[in-house]
Specification:
- By secondary structure, the protein is of the alpha+beta class.
- The chain has helices at residues 36-51, 61-73; strands spanning 3-9, 17-22, 25-31.
- Strands 1-3-2 form a three-stranded mixed sheet, with helices on one face.
- It is globular and about 30 Å long.
């Protein structure tokens, strides 16, 4: 797996994380207002997107999000 760089960043309410590809992996931004438990969930959500190669968008974003939420709910 590529490297994952994680930063806590001020983000608008309702945005828990963002994933951006970079030269040597991915940068994950986690909303700095999240408590520890929700920050871990946001990180897991981001890693699931990375593992599924969702950062190369080739479809409906809402469908991709729905699939990831279903996968994480089953854990």
């Amino acid at each position: 797996m590529d490297d994952i760089f994680v930063y806590f960043q001020h983000m608008p309410p309702g945005v828990n994380e963002a994933v951006l590809p970079c030269n040597d992996g991915y940068t994950v931004y986690i909303n700095d207002s999240l408590d520890h438990e929700h920050a871990i969930r946001a990180y897991q959500h981001a890693v699931t997107h990375i593992l599924r190669n969702d950062c190369i968008i080739d479809g409906d974003i809402q469908s991709i999000e729905s699939e990831v939420h279903t996968l994480l709910k089953d854990r």
